[in-house]
Amino acid sequence: MKRKLLCIAIVLAIAAALLCACQPDNGKIKITVGFWPDNSQKSDIAMYEEWKAAFEADYPQYEIVAEPYQYSPETVAAKGNTGNLPTIFQTYFTEPAMLIEEGYIRDITEQVEELGWLDKIDDSMRAQLTVDGKLYGIPRDGYGMGLFINLEMLYSLGEIDKKPDGTYNLYDEQGKPLYPTTFQDITELSRKAVDQLSNTYGILILSANKQGGWQLANMGWNFGTDALEVQKNGKWTANLADDGMVQALTWIKELANEGLCYPGASLNYNDWPAKVGSSEVMMAFVGNDALASPITSYNFPKDDFAFVPMPTGDGVSRHALFGGTPYVFADNASDEQVEGALRFLKYIGRSPETDDIAVAAMRKGFEVARQKGMPILPTIKAWKNEDYLTIANEMETSYINVNYEYFKDFFDTIYEMRHDEEPYYCQDLYGLLDNAIQNVLKDPAISNPLTALQTQNSQFQQRFLDKVK
Amino acid sequence: MNKYKAAIADLPKIPTTFGQKFKRFIKRNWGGWAIMLPSLVLFAFFIWVPLIENISYSFFEIKRFERQSFVGFENYSRVFQDPAFGKAVLNTFLYAFWSIVIGFLLPLFLGLLLSETVHFKGFFRLGMYIPNIISGIAVVLMWSNILSGSSGSMINGFLSLFGAGPVTVLSNSKWVIPVIVLVMTWRGAGGTVLIYLSALQTVDSTLYEVAKLDGAGVFSRIKNVTLPSIRPTIRLLFLLQIISVFQVFYEPMVMTAGGPDNASISLMYLCYKYTFIDRDPGAGAAVGVMLALIIGALSILYFALSRRTKQ
Amino acid sequence: MTALLCLSRSAAITAGVILGFVALAELGVIVYLVLRKRVAAGSVAVLRTKRLRKGDRIPFRYRLRYKREGLITGIEYKKWYFKLLYAVILLILFAAVLTAVIPVLWLFLAGFKDAQDVFKAPFTFWPESIDLRKVVEVWKVVGFGKYFLNTLILVLGSIVCAVFFNGLLAYAVSILKPKGHKIVYGLIMASYMIPAVASLVPLYANINKLGLKGYATFIPLCLLYGANSYYFMMFKNYFDTIPQSLIESARIDGAGNMRVFFSVVLPLSRPIVGVVSIFAMTAAWADFLLPYLLLQDQNLYTVMVVIYNLRSTMASMADFGIDKYLIAVAITILPQIALFAIFQRQIMGTGATSGIKG
Predict the structure, then answer these.
(1) Could you say which of A15, A460, C81, C286 would form a disulfide bridge with B135 (CB–CB 3.0 to 4.6 Å)?
(2) Which residues contact B90 (CB under 8 A, 6 or more apart)?
């Protein structure tokens, strides 16, 4: 008897769970929001609930439906092919081309123009989101790549002094920076770090999860490679084995050979806060949008690091890889849904608008971040209209809770140093570059950067770039 | 008269025509088929149809997981030109080799020892079985942290006791496959030991007595009595080991992403990588077909051998 | 009808929680029974007779002397070098057990260190303190409750499917034997060894084409266990041993095919139903690839998908370092250990072939 009851209970529970997917229809236009905070971010969810309520009060024809979705190129197909993508969701700047090719996202030019936002989008970001003259996304924010340095270590190596107020002085008498500005400087500094500090490596070189390639591309540009994809006779050609790239990889090879970089050939971007946080490395290349991580999760003191511009390899080329996060819209979203979703962006403070609602939302975002104890750092703005920039910068300055001295150079130069990512199959390119880095790292002494890059170059051409018409 | 006619009509008819035979056939068999039908639909949907369709997919250009146009062997040629494929095939044999050296011999050895002990037997059995109860992904996630290249990781802490290290085994192209096999063995050995143990317990003790009377030493007894007695089990486990090694997937996926530079990539992971990371399901299907062929060949071998064992 | 079908999510959760409690209560009873039995066995253990029969428990220190089975016997163990050999054997086995247990122990302890100390050199095994509140915190932050419930649904559904569909098919092939059953058997055997994931592309595409949303996505994931050649074979081999006379007599009583299956065959096959259930349970619990690829909504994730995803999302989570991540992994292991404790005898007794894979 008990067994039977148990069986019935099981069947009922399953049936109930399976069927609760259907929800009553209230005739409203639904906007599913994929960038809704992850279930674990309780205070963020509360903030979004507030924004949702405000939006639905002003636009009663709409209903915001939370559908937290962490974008990943591997799992997007499951949602895309079944038409289950959220109305609006976040992705990376490298993805739109692929998403358009697969037919997962839609053109929103008309709706953005109607709102008068089209010309307010940051030029370079707009270019990255535009394909064949059509706009496919709204930028959330951008990031530039730079160099993270542990200042406490830099100080204990005798490279920098302390000012009377206890903060670090990153410049000499002539005002020239004392932090590394060339890749050669990094090598030398790493050598010192490995010699004089215990259990510490100079720099973290990533090599997996496409993030090694992401960094190597930037290094290659700074060693003099113009682009990794070039047009030759009207045909896109892979340029992975260019001289600058070979020099960049050779630089990695020498670091590894001397044991100056953190050991391992399967390091990815999730490792950097951990390795930096446990003081196992002194430097790392990171995006400015990720700097909070070692502080919130690894108790890294927030005033003990600097974030400085990417070094140069050939003394002339100075570039910072510039990417970011755009909002994109599902292919099957209707015009009304897109309009609603765009308007909702104002209520969460991600629009170029500067009316009370938008400003209050922006402030709310900062407040919640401050309550959570997050370090608040400057950001790179997605909009370029003066009224927005004035308000946004002003507000940001009032909330910044780190020593801006340590970030000044990066933010002063980022707008001229920024270098867009490659236009076609960029993530696939990064993935192949990972292989080249791994090839060098697994046996640095006997590896050959040139052949490693050539192998990946022909792969990239054959398997990906040849598909570009 | 009418009465008789009715009685005759009631008797089961002896089928004479084809139609009647067919009716009787349906009547006798429909019940069984009706019961099989739902399960057969499932088998068709999840196993047979995909297996056949996979072949077809491998000859098509695929977009959004729909077949677009027939491209002949183009998918295959793309796969063959990729150095990762060559490595995956080679690695498959390396995985097989190491899993024989480590994954196959170690449990046999431990099973032999365990069957000989009369103390703490239950404790040993339970202790060795514990890793078996942890599911695949958790084991792999756990070990990727234990094997981390950090000088404070458990492996390096252990090695430093002997003054060695620090090492980054998962980033070393020579070590990565043996280490992955070790992790697989760590998880699987307990279960395999138990199988050997139950086989060893059926070995007839009088055979040992006879061997002893002949003056056979311990090793000679193992060679001439123990191993021949459990040969069917050994052969079965050997083949299952090989076949399972062809499906290595989670370990390279989580621990190394196939790296360094494809040094640990397996066919199964390559199939996944083509399909979901490179968005090239055609190539993924081609790898899947080749994998199925290899496993198919191995299972034919398995059945042939197990039939011979029975005879 | 739709009103009836549209049961609210909370009702489902309530049902699941009740079910969980029932399972927990049963666990308690079983643990009690197991413990009681063990104590009883121990108390009769002291037997000081030299005339031993098979199956008698010998006191600890006499065991080696009276060892009569196996490769080396008690007579040989009188020699010192055999004693040494035996010591070495015990040593090796202790080392094997340590190797098996220590990594798991490390996982359970390392999470209690501070994030920046987990990989701090030199390596230390024990954390400075074990603060169980951290476990509660991780549980809450990750929101494990929901994911465990999802996993529970998947596991129960898979067990039902595994027993029902494979059992019925084996029943038809082994007992009913309709014309053509040999073809079915041949087809299953032919695809016996080839795993479903080898045809990942069409399998994924076909499930995708069903266009399921929400909890309905679980249906194919559960049904997948209904088409398992291995479970089918276990059922068939077992059903082959059921005497036909039992089935005939049920037939004569007027039972139909389904009645015979449920009231004769299944009750007779309890051991094999148990084995298949346990196999399906562990397999469904550990299942990762298809749930990862097919579950589209975070609210549907299973525990395995969550810990895999956490690895990449933790970098963007505030205050979630490697320490908390290791605790999260440990949390996912706990129920497996609990289930093992319940079904220890069945799992370890029934040719633990699951161990060969992976």
Answers:
(1) C286
(2) none
DSSP 8-state code for residue A132: T
Chain A residues 280-299 with CB within 8 Å of chain C: 280, 290, 292-293, 296-299
Residue C296 in this model has a pLDDT that exceeds 70 = yes
CB-based contacts of C182, cutoff 8 Å, min separation 6: none
- Which chain B positions have a beta carbon within 8 Å of A79's beta carbon? none
Inter-chain contact C296–A81, Cβ cutoff 8 Å? Answer: no
Residue C220's nearest CA partner among C231, C230, C212, C228 is C212
Asked if the Cβ–Cβ distance from B278 to A431 is below 8 Å, we say yes
Find the CB nearest C206 among B50, B133, B145. Answer: B50
Q: How many domains does chain C have?
A: 3
Is residue B159's pLDDT more than 60?
yes
Give chain A's mean pLDDT.
90
Chain A closest-CA separation from residue C120 CA (Å)? 7
A277:C218 CB<8 A: no
Instruction: Using CB atoms, pick whichever of A266, A280, A434 lies closest to residue B150.
Output: A280
Mean pLDDT (chain B) is 87
CA-closest candidate to residue C219, choices A8, A84, A12, A14? A14
CA distance C324 to C170: 46
Look at residues A250, A195, A244 and name the one whose alpha carbon lies nearest to residue A224. Answer: A244
Q: How far is A286 from chain C (nearest CA, A)?
A: 12
**Domain end point (choices A378, A399, A420):** A399
Domain B86-310 CATH (choose: 1.25.40.10, 1.10.3720.10, 3.40.50.2000, 1.10.443.10): 1.10.3720.10
- Using a CB–CB cutoff of 8 Å, tell me whether A278 touches chain C: yes
Contact call for residues A17 and C219 (beta carbons, < 8 A): no
H or E element at residue A36:
none
* pLDDT score recorded for residue C18: 53
Whole-number Å distance between alpha carbons of A207 and A214:
9
Q: Nearest CA of chain A to the CA of C262: how many Å?
A: 12
| Closest Cβ opposite residue A21 in set C11, C216, C309 | C216
The yes-or-no verdict on residue C58 having pLDDT over 90 is no
Q: Could you tell me the pLDDT band of residue C4, with boundaries at 50, 70 and 90?
A: very low
pLDDT at B24 (0 to 100):
79
CATH number, domain containing residue A433: 3.40.190.10
> Which residue does chain B place closest to C312, by CA atoms?
B254
Q: Check if the beta carbon of residue C293 is closer than 8 Å to that of residue A74.
A: yes
| In-domain check, residue C340 | no
Cα separation, C196 vs C204, in Å, equals 10
Structure tokens at C292: 């990862």
Contact A246, A235 (CB under 8 A): no
DSSP bridge partners of B268: none
Which has the higher per-residue pLDDT, C75 or C11?
C75
Closest alpha carbon within chain A to B152:
A199
- 3-state DSSP assignment of residue A415: helix
* Claim to verify: residue C93 and residue C240 sit in the same structural domain: no
Q: What is the pLDDT of residues A316-328, one digit of tens each?
A: 999 999 999 999 9
Is B277 in contact with A74 (Cβ distance < 8 A)?
Answer: yes
Given a contact cutoff of 8 angstroms between Cβ atoms, the answer to whether B260 and B173 are in contact is: yes
Separation of alpha carbons A281 and A194, rounded Å: 9
Interface contacts B/C by beta carbons within 8 Å: 331
pLDDT tens digits, C179-215: 889 999 999 887 777 777 788 999 999 998 888 888 8
Residue B5 buriedness (CB in 10 A; 0-12 / 13-18 / 19+): exposed
pLDDT over threshold 60, residue B45 = yes
